[in-house]
Specification:
Elements (H helix, E strand, L loop, with lengths): L1 H13 L5 H17 L26 E5 L5 E3 L2 E2 L5 H9 L6 E5 L5 H13 L5 E4 L4
Helix pairs in contact: 3-4
């Protein structure tokens, strides 16, 4: 009688579902999706962009620079200034050639915009675009 009871208990324990392989698969999938995700680096500041009828959406991963109303040149939430544009863009273009997109506030002097475009071109950027809003 005791052996029958013992066998029943062993059978009940053996019928449980082992969750370890399922958890392993879930964690492997999670790691895969985290590693394969492409993160877009934003400039980190709000800019009041001008409108343009010819505005287009860029499909490529672009280097995003911003020029604020106060004249700060920002990349990835850091004020790099006009003098830091060339070294920042050169470093980013070492990996692969990408377009540079400048988000410029409406109130910024055109002279400052031209300086930033020149620095990006001198850094080796093939394409320099200005971000606008489509009306």
């Amino acid at each position: 009688m005791a052996s029958r009871l013992q066998r029943r208990l062993e059978n009940q324990q053996a019928q449980g579902i082992d969750m370890s392989p399922l958890l392993d698969v879930v964690f492997i999938l999670l790691i895969f999706f985290i590693v394969s995700t492409v993160f877009v680096k934003e400039t980190g500041v709000e800019v009041d962009k001008p409108q343009a009828i010819s505005a287009q959406k860029l499909d490529q991963m672009a280097i995003m620079l911003a020029i604020t109303r106060t004249g700060e040149v920002v990349y990835d939430s850091a004020n790099v200034g006009v003098s830091g544009v060339r070294s920042t863009v050169e470093q980013l273009l070492m990996k692969e050639q990408r377009p540079v997109v400048i988000q410029v506030d409406k109130a910024v002097r055109s002279e400052l915009l031209v300086e930033v475009i020149d620095e990006a071109k001198l850094a080796g950027a093939d394409t320099v675009n200005i971000a606008t809003l489509k009306p």
